[in-house]
Design a protein that fits this description.
single chain, alpha+beta, 2 domains, two-stranded antiparallel sheet, extended
Length: 91
């Protein structure tokens, strides 16, 4: 086991859990939603395999790289959206 954390959900909070292959386990705490949503969020966290649990623990260079990637992804999505709108108008 590499990391372990005790999780305490506040009043009304939900804890979601997901274990993948007996090797990767994720707990999430939500203040709204449902247990199904909490489990879905935990599943997505397991899939992306984050290097840290809290953004403030991430090295600055890694954080900057993630921000650049997010920015470039957003630009690509906007340009793709514009292209699709033009294509549908022409059809």
């Amino acid at each position: 086991m590499r990391r372990a954390v005790v999780v305490d959900a506040a009043d009304g909070g939900l804890v979601g859990e997901y274990v993948h292959g007996g090797r990767i386990g994720v707990l999430t705490v939500l203040t709204g939603g449902s247990s199904e949503v909490a489990k879905d969020v935990a599943m997505h966290v397991a899939a992306i395999n984050p290097s840290v649990a809290h953004p403030e623990n991430m090295p600055q260079e890694e954080l900057d790289a993630e921000k650049r990637l997010s920015w470039h992804s957003l630009i690509w999505l906007v340009s793709r959206s514009r292209s699709l709108r033009k294509w549908f108008r022409a059809a």
